Task: inverse folding
């Protein structure tokens, strides 16, 4: 059982990721999960979408470079050793992992340039979690 | 008529030094005669020994001994860098290889460099011309020249080295780079003269200042700087930073390297070694000569080179010639600093780079988009070059490692061809400017040095 992942090339320019999210949102395509990777001048964003084919077409039309690939989505038990159980099996079989990310979508970790300003902007408008709240999830 | 060149340093009444005073102060009429005599010999050498020139001269119906005055020069055919490339590596040599004792090379318009060959006699003349250059800056035996031009195929390093040994000063072949060692050697050895590119001189000046060295802590008296364009403003900064007289020198590998033109301490234009090079300024559009004092493209004909005579070689450098005599007493014409190029050649850290060379590398990579841009800028005093390419879906795989490998691969290929480090920047599709007709491929953000 494989899942289609859409990867998009982005230059590190302000607002580019928001543009991707807007295009998908306006088309009614839901982002089930994503991750971003960045170098100094560019980054790539990986997306698991409710409609990857249409998502790709729309982004392509908007001028983005995209790529399809196949990934596995694994339901990991939310308990100590849950992730290790899956990793161990792959390691024993010699299957190497390029990368992995979590697609439990509802709590997202943001690394931003100006964290204080981001807190100021978002506080009260969205739910921000504290260290304690994250631990208690 | 011939000029017997004395090879000993001569001081004039005002204290100015000459390496070959008779040749350097030849009256204009005598110089003119000498040039025509040597021009005929050059044409004969080219006609007899280089099929390319025999064909060209035959087509134009020109006989080498039919050239009798400077007015006839405008009828002679031009030679371009492309001609040299087409005859790579040794097709433009007028001597068999067993008489060629040295070969240098510079980057060409494509993957092939352009080569230059020297007989023992050519090296002899070259040594004298650079000894003249050094003497014009007041260098004499007892001085110590720190030669920070690169040694290798580039003519700068070995050329200055040869001339310094001919003159009899002490030469330290330190070559380029390693700033820490440059500053240490400069002080420990007591270097009174420095040769390097102007940008490297400025870099050394900054490095010295950063280490708390004042100009008076450095023993330098004079510097010989060339191989890239620079301004009088930079001269002022180098002089203040290093405590030296910063003199401009001009040469190009096709003419044998440095020694073609050099400033004296008057710093009022570069004396052209007119007994060995016939200089003209032409309009690069009409190819007709322009009057003295007007800007145009500098064209040289070699007058004494045996291994590789070149007729009306188009340097693509734009400058003016100054006919009025210089206060120093030398009688040669002077050339102004080149103020630009009549082609699209870029000079990056002293290395000649044509955008077409980069394009050729990019186009050899099948998956690359045909849109690219070259951005040249300067960080501190060093040139940097970026090559922007668009990431199309053929290149884009889904890991960062793939993109980084692609970037490094392109950088390595450009380095292989151009011998220059560039930074490849990946851009989103359609973000590099398109234009109707000729695309703007090069953005040069450098302000003149």
Result:
């Amino acid at each position: 059982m494989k899942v289609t992942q859409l990867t998009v090339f982005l230059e590190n320019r302000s607002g580019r990721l928001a543009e991707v999210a807007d295009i998908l949102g306006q088309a009614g395509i839901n982002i089930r999960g994503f991750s971003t990777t960045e170098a100094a001048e560019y980054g790539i964003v990986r997306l698991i979408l409710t409609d990857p084919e249409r998502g790709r077409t729309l982004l392509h039309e908007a001028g983005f470079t995209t790529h399809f690939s196949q990934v596995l989505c694994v339901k990991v038990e939310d308990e100590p050793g849950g992730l290790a159980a899956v990793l161990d099996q792959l390691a024993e079989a010699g299957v190497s992992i390029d990368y992995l990310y979590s697609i439990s979508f509802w709590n997202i970790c943001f690394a931003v340039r100006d964290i204080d300003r981001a807190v100021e902007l978002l506080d009260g408008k969205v739910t921000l979690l504290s260290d304690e709240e994250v631990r208690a999830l | 008529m011939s000029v017997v060149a004395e090879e000993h340093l001569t001081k004039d009444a005002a204290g100015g030094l000459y390496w070959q005073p008779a040749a350097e102060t030849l009256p204009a009429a005598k110089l003119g005669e000498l040039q025509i005599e040597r021009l005929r010999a050059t044409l004969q050498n080219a006609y007899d020994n280089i099929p390319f020139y025999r064909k060209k001269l035959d087509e134009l119906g020109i006989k080498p001994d039919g050239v009798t005055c400077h007015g006839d020069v405008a009828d002679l055919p031009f030679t371009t860098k492309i001609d040299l490339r087409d005859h790579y590596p040794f097709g433009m040599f007028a001597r068999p290889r067993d008489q060629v004792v040295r070969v240098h090379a510079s980057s060409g318009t494509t993957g092939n460099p352009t080569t230059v060959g020297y007989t023992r006699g050519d090296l002899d003349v070259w040594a004298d011309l650079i000894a003249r250059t050094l003497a014009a800056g007041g260098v004499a035996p007892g001085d110590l020249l720190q030669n920070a031009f690169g040694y290798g195929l580039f003519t700068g390093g070995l050329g200055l080295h040869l001339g310094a040994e001919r003159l009899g000063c002490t030469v330290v072949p330190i070559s380029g780079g390693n700033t820490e060692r440059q500053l240490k050697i400069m002080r420990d050895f007591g270097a009174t003269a420095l040769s390097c590119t102007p940008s490297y001189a400025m870099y050394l000046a900054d490095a010295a200042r950063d280490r708390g060295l004042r100009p008076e802590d450095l023993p330098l008296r004079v510097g010989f700087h060339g191989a890239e364009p620079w301004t009088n403003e930079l001269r002022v900064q180098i002089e203040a930073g290093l405590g030296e007289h910063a003199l401009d020198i001009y040469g190009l590998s096709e003419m044998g390297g440095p020694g073609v033109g050099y400033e004296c301490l008057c710093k009022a234009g570069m004396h052209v070694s007119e007994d060995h090079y016939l200089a003209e300024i032409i309009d690069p559009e009409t190819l007709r000569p322009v009057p003295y004092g007007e800007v145009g493209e500098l064209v040289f004909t070699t007058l004494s080179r045996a291994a590789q005579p070149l007729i009306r070689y188009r340097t693509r450098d734009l400058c003016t010639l100054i006919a009025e005599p210089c206060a120093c007493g030398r009688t040669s014409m002077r050339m102004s600093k080149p103020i630009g190029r009549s082609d699209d050649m870029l000079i990056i850290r002293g290395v000649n780079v044509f955008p077409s060379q980069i394009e050729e590398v990019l186009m050899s990579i099948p998956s690359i988009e045909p849109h690219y841009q070259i951005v040249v800028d300067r960080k501190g005093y060093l040139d940097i070059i970026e090559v922007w390419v668009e990431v199309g879906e053929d290149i884009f795989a889904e890991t960062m490692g793939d993109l980084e490998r692609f970037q490094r691969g392109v950088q390595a290929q450009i380095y292989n061809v151009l011998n220059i480090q560039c930074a490849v920047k990946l851009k989103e599709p359609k973000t590099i400017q398109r234009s109707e007709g000729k695309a703007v491929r090069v953005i040069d953000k450098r302000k003149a040095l």
